[in-house]
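Q: Can someone sanity-check these two? First one:
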Amino acid sequence: QVQLVESGGGLVQAGGSLRLSCAASGSIFSTMGWYRQAPGKQRELVAMLTSGGSTVYADSVKARFTISRDNAKNTVYLQMNSLKPEDTAVYLCNAAGRYGAYWGQGTQVTVSS
C-alpha cells in the first residue's frame, strides 16, 4: 500500500523559512514533487524532481524554494526560504511511478505579514 506522509508545515512570519518533508512507502517513484492549493484557487505545481535529477519550479518560487530527495529514504524535501504571505496554502506531496500517481494528505503552511 502506497503511503505519502508529509510533515514540516506551520505558521511563520514573512521572510522566514520552513522545510517540508514527504516520506513515501509502498512503491518506487520516478518523480516526486510538491503542489499547493490556496483557498479559492486551483492546485498548482510548486516544484518537481525526477529520479534523474531534473527539477522544475514554479516561477513564483524560483530562487526561494529548493527541492531535494533522499533516494535511500524515499523522501522528498522542500526548503522554503524568504516566505511571503502569498505562499500560504496547503502543500501536497505527489509521487509518480510505474503504477500511478499518488497524493499525500497535505500540510498547511501559513505565512503572516
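And here is the second, same format, sequence then C-alpha cells:
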Amino acid sequence: EVRLVESGGGVVQAGGSLRLSCVTSGFAFDENAIGWFRRAPGKEREGIACRRNTDGRTYYKGSVKGRFTISVDSAKSTVYLQMDNLKPEDTAVYYCTADVPLSHLCQGPGSYEYSGMSDWGKGILVTVSS
C-alpha cells in the first residue's frame, strides 16, 4: 500500500521560509517520481514541482521557480519542499503525490502539472501572512 504523509506546514510571514516533508512508503522510492501540488482557497489544485527519482531531474512551475526547491533523502524515502521568500499567494493546502508506476509525472517541461496519480497525501496547510 502506497502511503504519503506530509508535515511541516504552518503560519509564516511573507518573506519567510518553511520546509515541508513527505514521508513515503509502499513503493520503490528511487524508481518513481514525486510531485508537490497545492490548492489555494477558491482555486483548483495545481502542480508546482516534481522530482524524477530515477535520475534526479526536477521541474518547477514558473511562479515558484527560484524560491522552492524539491529534494529527497532516499535512505528515508522522504521528499522535501524547501519554500523560501514566501508570498501571501503561496497560501494553500500542499499535497505530495507519487507516480506509481512511473508514467507521466516529471517526464519533461510542464509535466509537474500531470495529476493522474492515484496516490496522494492528505495535505498540509501553509498560511503566509502579509
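A (reply): Looked at the second one. The mean pLDDT is 97. The radius of gyration is 13 Å.
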